[in-house]
Amino acid sequence: MAKEKDFPLIFDMSKEGRKGYQLPELDVPDVDLDADFEDEYIRKEAPELPEVSELQIVRHYTALSKRNHGIDSGFYPLGSCTMKYNPKVNEEIVRLPGFSFVHPYQAEETAQGAMELMYDLQTSLENITGMHQFTLQSAAGAQGEWAGLMMIRAYHESNGDTERTEVIVPDSAHGTNPASAAVAGFKAVTVKTNDRGLVDLDDLKRVVSEKTAALMLTNPNTLGLFEEEIIEMAEVVHGAGGRLYYDGANLNAIMGYARPGDMGFDVVHLNLHKTFTGPHGGGGPGSGPVGVTEEMAKFLPKPVLTKKDNQYTFDYNRPDSIGRIKPYYGNFGINVRAYTYIRSMGPDGLKQVSENAVLNANYMMRRLQDEFELPFDQHCKHEFVISGKKQKKLGVRTLDIAKRLLDFGFHPPTIYFPLNVEEAMMVEPTETESKETLDEFIDALISISNEAKEDPEIVQDAPHTTVVSRMDETLAARKPVLKYEKE
C-alpha cells in the first residue's frame, strides 16, 4: 500500500494535556451514568482520543479539505453525474431562518411558507417533465427508482395483472436500474444496443411479453445519445400492457427542448442534486422526486402535499398509496436549493443550460475523436463516450490515463462504463465550464495519449504528484485498512 507523504495522522500529533475545545455550561440535569445504567454498558477506560490544540485541529482539517477534489476547486467531468457548479445564492437562501430552522413536527399552519415552496417546486417539476403530479419524498435517485417501480407494481396489481414480473433494462443502463428492479421484486431483462448506440427496437419487440411490467430508460441514454425511436418504443411497451419508467439522470441535456411525459413515460424520477445544482459530492445529500401520470397518481407515497382554499396540507388519506418511503417529507434543504435554481434561471435559462451542455460535449468530443476511438460517431447530447483501445495496444489502459490526469490537476471522467464499450471513458462537461477549462482538459488528454506513444511508463506508473501514489489495487481490495490501529 502506498504511504502518504509527510502528513501525520491527528493521533500522531496528540500530546497529553492539550485541548482544542470549550464546552458550554451544562443546561440539562447532570446524570450519574453508573447509577442509571447497567455496569456492562459503562466504559471502563477513557476513549483514546487525540489531544491537540485548537490551532492544530483547525490546520489538520483544513489540510484534509484541500486534498479533496470538489466542484469548487476544479473540473469534475463525471459522465452521467452532472457534477456542475452549485450557485452560492442557493446556500444563502437555504440558510434563511424560515427554512433552516423549520421542523417537521411543528404544526402545519406554522410552516406554510416551507410547504408553499415544496408545492411550487412540485409544480415546476411537473411543467419541466410533462408529468401530472410529483412527490418530493424520495431521498435520492435510487430510492426514486425503487418508489417508481413500486408504483408500477401497485398499478398492475390494482388491475389484477399479477403476472408482470419483468422489467426491461438496456445493456447500457445505469447499474441502479437492474438493482432497483430486483429490490422491487422484478426480474431484469436486458435489451440490446444497436450499432448506433441506441436501443435496438427489434430486440425490444423480441423481449417484450405479457410478463413485462416496465421498460426503464434514460433518455438521452448513458452513451449520451438521444433515443430517436422513443415514440415507437413507448407504443411497443404500452401495446404489451407495460409502463415506461424514465431515469432522470440525464435531464440536464433536454430541459426546455423535450419532456419525458411527451415521450410516453408514465413514471419519472429526477436527481435534484444533479440537474438542479444541489451539492453532489461525498454521497449526498440527494433528492429524487418522482413524477407520475394522472392514472398513476393515486399510488404516490403518502402523505401527498396538497393545496386547498389557499392552505397547504399533507394528505394521509390515500388508500391506494404505496405508503411512506422516507421519514418526514424529503430532503428539504436540497429542495430549497433546487427551487432557488429554477426560479433564478427561469424557462429560458433552463433551456440555455441544455444548449450549452450539449455544445460543450460536442466540442470536446470532436476535438478528441482523432486521438481516441469514438465508438459512436454521431452528435451527442450532454455527455459522450470515447475509448482508450488505441492506447491499450501500446500498453496503457484507461485506468492509467485516469491516474495520469491527476498529475494534470483534473478529476478523471467515469471509466469502464458503460460496460458495452471497451476501455470506456464517459465525459460530461456540463454547461457551467468555460471553453478555457475544456481546452485545458482536452490538451491534457492529448498529452497523455502522446506519452502513451513515446513514454508509456510515465502513464503506467501515474500519478506522480499526488499525496498518495499508485495503489496496489489487489492488496487494497483483499486487505483493506479500515480503521486506525495504535502502534
Automatic annotation (TrEMBL):
It comes from the Bacteria. GO terms for cellular component: cytosol; glycine cleavage complex. GO terms for biological process: glycine decarboxylation via glycine cleavage system. It catalyses: N(6)-[(R)-lipoyl]-L-lysyl-[glycine-cleavage complex H protein] + glycine + H(+) = N(6)-[(R)-S(8)-aminomethyldihydrolipoyl]-L-lysyl-[glycine-cleavage complex H protein] + CO2. The modification N6-(pyridoxal phosphate)lysine is found at residue 274. The keyword Oxidoreductase applies. InterPro entries: GcvPB, GDC-P_C, GDC-P_N, GDC_P, PyrdxlP-dep_Trfase, PyrdxlP-dep_Trfase_major, PyrdxlP-dep_Trfase_small. The keyword Plastid does not apply. Gene3D superfamilies: 6.20.440.10, Aspartate Aminotransferase, domain 1 (3.90.1150.10), Type I PLP-dependent aspartate aminotransferase-like (Major domain) (3.40.640.10). Its EC number is 1.4.4.2. Coiled coil: none annotated. GO terms for molecular function: glycine binding; glycine dehydrogenase (decarboxylating) activity; pyridoxal phosphate binding. The glycine cleavage system catalyzes the degradation of glycine. The P protein binds the alpha-amino group of glycine through its pyridoxal phosphate cofactor; CO(2) is released and the remaining methylamine moiety is then transferred to the lipoamide cofactor of the H protein. PANTHER family: GLYCINE DEHYDROGENASE (DECARBOXYLATING), MITOCHONDRIAL (PTHR11773:SF1), GLYCINE DEHYDROGENASE, DECARBOXYLATING (PTHR11773). HAMAP family: GcvPB (MF_00713). This is Probable glycine dehydrogenase (decarboxylating) subunit 2. The gene is gcvPB.
